Sequence to fold (694 residues):
Amino acid sequence: MNIQRLLAMAYKETLQIWRDPRSLAVALLMPLMQMGLLGYGVSLDIKHVPLCVYDQENSQASRAVVDDFTASNWFTISHTIASEAGIRRAMDRGECAAAVVIPVDFSRTLAATGSAPVQAIFDATDVNTTNIAMGYAQGVVAQTNATIAARWAASHGVQPSLVGRVDFEPSVWFNETLESRNFIIPGVVAVILALVGAQLTSLTISREWERGTMEQLISTPVTPLEVMFGKLIPYFAIGLLDAAFCLAVAVFWFHVPFRGSIGILFVTTALFDLVVLGIGYLISVRIRNQLGASQVALLLTMLPTTLLSGYTFPIDQMPTAIQVLTYAVYSRYYVTILRAIFLKGSGLTDLWTPVLGLVAYAAIIIWLAARAFRKHL
Amino acid sequence: MSPDNPAVLAEGLTKRFASFTAVDHLDLRIEKGEVVGFIGPNGAGKSTTIRMLCGLLRPSEGRASVAGFDVGRQPEEVREHIGYMSQKFSLYGDLTVRENLRFFAGIYRVPHHDLGERMRFAISMAGLEGREDVLVRTLAGGWKQRLALGCAILHRPPILFLDEPTSGVEPEARRRFWDLIHELAAGGVAILVSTHYMEEAEYCNRIALIDGGRLVAMGTPSELRQRSLGGDLFEVDCVPLGAALKALGSAQGVVEAAIFGDKLHIVLGQGGLSAEELPRFLAEREIRVGSVRPATPSLEDVFVRLVSTTRETRAAS
Fold:
């Protein structure tokens, strides 16, 4: 490889990116857009579930139950209604996702037997939300129970029983506030790198074929390796810059905790960048028109990175066959590493398997890419 | 390149695409400082031959050496010694004149201390002084082509392959382009240039005429004229034309006779009627002769004739 030719190639490519509004937009605006969209738009948290209350009794005790629901922040009362049919109507209109029905004899039953039923109804068209909302509702009711027990004990002048009670005290690690944003945003970096890296490079060779400049280029003594590295250098730099931008936004704007080492993050990001650039370049060599190349690039990078990397859908919830398939998805390794570095502060000793996976992937892709380009028509 | 090697030597060069033979056992020899015109109809195999000689296409059969290097086995060495202009304009339109030159200078590893001088030369050769920082896509055809030539000779290659460099370029710019070609040839550069402008064939030292992938004829323009006609062409002013045509048509030594406007064109071969005997021969047959003058057939006529006779003999065999 000759340094003069390599630099000539890299400089030319940089000028071309700089003068191409489309490339610039992908390189500069895409990360901003994606970060904003995914950072603000994608949230798996459920707060303020609209709740429909049908309080048949309307006593002090029943209102206390309703207050517990509102105080929790998980629910917001959207309707207070006076008939069973009202629940159905509100749910049909999508105005509430859950309903609480307190029976007319609530306080009487409670006083007589020490326990009273409260009915909760959920709109399960969105299973995910329902599951979480049900969990929340149980939490609220447990809270109510504790309060009632304490009050009953106080009013009867007895100590609340200390025997036969199990207290469940969940302790959440690594993402203490249980914000799905902290879990999603590190993965966004992978999505953006895959998108920007492969999209831009997928055009780099096909553009030269389309415009006829390739025929001139391959009539010169430039070697395939000089073409590849010369072309990839500017895109590599763009990838790293985009990644740095996204990571900074994640930490300083979205306040995602960052607990790991910047060094490991840099090395693994560079590796991932190499993989996606290599894939884009391979596509570009094989498909000699820009439109086709960019579509295949989307298919081979965005699709697996959003669906199969564990970025949004947990891998251990997938069917076994798909789980096995995810090992072939390079983003899987990077997303794992990103989350571990961000939230757990893991070091190389913990992460050597995904890092090794990424190294192997990068080596294979670059080897294939280096062999793919031939100086023939 | 050793001094005794021809710049380009092709022997039995053949290229097949599936069942189609684009170039069929082509022999070609180009010496240093020679401008060889590559002439033939579209699809004759000109571009394919040039691409093989540049190492861009692998020959299916036969061999060729350029600057003494085998195009099949040493394509990189070949590329070090050639300049190539492809048929389609192939500089970077989104780069400026200077940026294009700098890029190709880098790719050809032009030494740093030579860079300024060679770029100035290329810019002045292309007539682009003062427009160095203009985006190339905004240039007119003639400038683009001269700049492409400038880029192709930055590394001072001893051999140039120019594939229809003047197509789509206005006549005056074409003329300037050919002046450049001759300047380069005077400096010892061997040049193979394809064209479909027949008048441009006149500017070449030798012409390689190609049709259906095969070399039909090769020689200087005057050699080709002779060969195509099988003799020398004369223009005869006489009356009546019909009788003269009939008389000459059957005379010995007359290869061909035809009415051309209000005159007669006849081709006289060896051993038979000579130009000097012609007036008397016609006078004996009561034909009045005004003048007998040697005529120059246009190269277009020559090519059409050579191609059609070759096609006939091929069809017959």
Observations:
- The longest strand of chain B covers residues 20-30.
- Chain B has a mean pLDDT of 89.
- Chain B has eleven helices and 14 strands.
- The first helix of chain B runs from residue 46 to 53.
